[in-house]
Amino acid sequence: MLTFRQFDAKLFFWLTIMPACRIYAIAQQKGGVGKTTTVINLGAALAAQGRRVLLVDLDPQGALTAGLGKNPLALSLTVYDVLRGSEAGIGQVILKTEAGLDLVPANIDLAAAEIQLASEPGRERILAEKLNPVLGAYDFVLIDCPPSLGLLTLNALMAATDVLIPVQAQYFALRGLDLLLSTIEKVKARINPSLAVRGIVVTMVDGRTVHSREALDELRNTYKQLVCKTVIPQTIKIADAQVAAQPIHAFAPASNAAEAYQRLAEEVLQQ
Fold first, then answer.
1. What does pTM read for this prediction?
2. What is the CATH number of domain 19-270?
3. CA angle, 39 then 40 then 46, to 5°
C-alpha cells in the first residue's frame, strides 16, 4: 500500500512530468481559409516530431476525411454516431490512415446533428464527454470545425484547450474575425475557462502581391502577438497534395509549404 507521501509524489509526477493531451479547435466561421489543410498538415508535422495525433472531422462536408484518403459516403460509423449517443464508442469510430494519423471521420449525416442535439441537456459538452476515454492515447487532438458558429463549433470549443484560427491573407477574409474572437471569449467566460487562443495562422500568403503583404501587415498590426510567426505560402503543391490525399510533408517534403507547416508545428510545441 502506498503511503501518503509516496502517493503525493506519484501524483506530482503524473501532473507535472507526464504530458497532458492538448486539444486544438481549428476554427473559423468563413470557409475556404485553409482549416482542413491546416489540420492535416499541422497534424502530420506534429506526428513527424514523434507526437501521437488524433484528427476529428466535425464538418459535415467530410473534407478532412476525404483528404486523408477515406470515402465519407462509404463509412458505416462516423462522429455523428458518437455524438447522437449510439452504442458505438469513440474507439470504434477511429480509423488509421496511411499518413500515420488517427481519424474520427465525418460525412453528410453530421448535418443532422445541429437539429437533433439542440434539445439535449448539456448539448455543448457532448463532444468533450465522448472524447474523454481516448485522450490518454494522444498528445494532440486537432478538431476540424465547420465554417459556422453553430452547435458543432460550440462543442469543439467546449472540448478544446486551445484554438488556432486560420485566416486567408486577403482583406475580405479579415471580416468576422472579431466576431469569432468574441464568441471564443464568451465560451471561455461561461463554460470553458481553460480555453486559450493560441494563434491566428495566416494562410495562402502570396508574397509577390501588394495585397497579400498589406493584409498580412494589417493582421499583425491589429492582432499583434496573436498572429503566428509562421505564415503558410500559397502554392500549387498544397492543392496537388490534397488531390493525392497526402500531407504536404509526404507529397513534397522539400517544398516551402512543408517547411512552413513544420515551423508551425514547432511554434505549437513551444506554446
1. 0.90
2. 3.40.50.300
3. 85
